[in-house]
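Give me the fold.
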Amino acid sequence: MRAVVQRVTRGRCTVAGAVTGSIGAGLVILVGVTSSDSDGDAEWLAKKIASLRIFADDDGRMNRDVREVRGAALVIPQFTLYGDARHGRRPDFTLAAPPAEAEPVFESFCRHLAAEDVPVERGRFREHMEIELLNDGPVTLMIDTPRPPGVTGAAPGGAKGGSGGGQ
């Protein structure tokens, strides 16, 4: 699984003119799913995101997680996070799980995040969504779930690890 996590002062998802999810301060989380992802990946990612210390404490240091600031999460299904644009002009989305496989894992992630005491609002699968947010900081992180044992090779974006220019 892959998530892009953005700290926000507010976020909203609209589908066909109707608001499907809206939050004040908290996190907007774009979530991509591959065919090899499971409930275990969803649980790991939810616990990781719920515990990220990316909110300011009284001294202005990033020492608080979303629960400590009584924030919420707006979670958006985003298959394009697994788009590969290294070749040609049209991204290849073959690494993204088909919707019938991805939706249950996405819903599992949302359930696990809610179980971590994070209020969860959602976007909608298979719908054209309009996402509005006010990024705070900005603080934006990309998180991939760990690879299963024995899986090797380049990450889906072409990254191969090693020393990489300050990354």
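The longest helix spans residues 99-115.
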